[in-house]
Amino acid sequence: MSSKSNKKAICILSGGMDSTLASYIAKNDGYEIIAVHFNYGQRTEKRELEAFRNICDDLEISEKYEIDIPFFTQIGASALTDKDIDVPTNGVEAGVPITYVPFRNGIFLSITAAIAEKEEAQAMYIGVVQEDSSGYPDCTDEFIADITKAINQGTKETTNIEIKTPLVHLSKAQIVSKALELNVPLEHTWSCYKEEDEACGVCDSCRLRLNGFNLANAKDPIPYKAL
What are the binding positions for ATP in this chain (predicted)? Predict the structure, then answer.
């Protein structure tokens, strides 16, 4: 048996297509992967957790963290965490959409940095997408650069963490193509904001995903409601 890599990466793995591809890229980059998943009161929390566990099995990840962050439902202000706010189904909104969860990626990266320091990891992977995303302010190169600096200033001198964002400038079609190229089990991923049994096909996330498959001339393997 080959010995495990001595370089470790913590992968933030939601169970969605982007974070799953980012985790496969981390594996191809030669890292031993430790996966972290956040249950933050999102509508599809159970389905995303199932996707996360399936993908960890696919990647043969033995060490994983499932972190509960209950306060997002207290804060509300997002259609993902406040059931009184409807998930929009009329296409991408102008400006920052109501599905944006306040500073979610900043909080995720901060918690992951604590895990990375404990595990003596050299890198953290996150599947943020700037150009083809929904206009979230916490998915940009500038934000990642600034939070990387803050994390390394606020940790031990011996801790030096690089945040890797391999998808940040890809379109959804390029993400689908890359995932197919790397044999990523897309049938185990989940992107829908609304539903847990069959994807709705009309929320922002489903639209972006379906459009990506369409432009990549590929068929999405997950079940959708008849539209």
Answer: 13-23
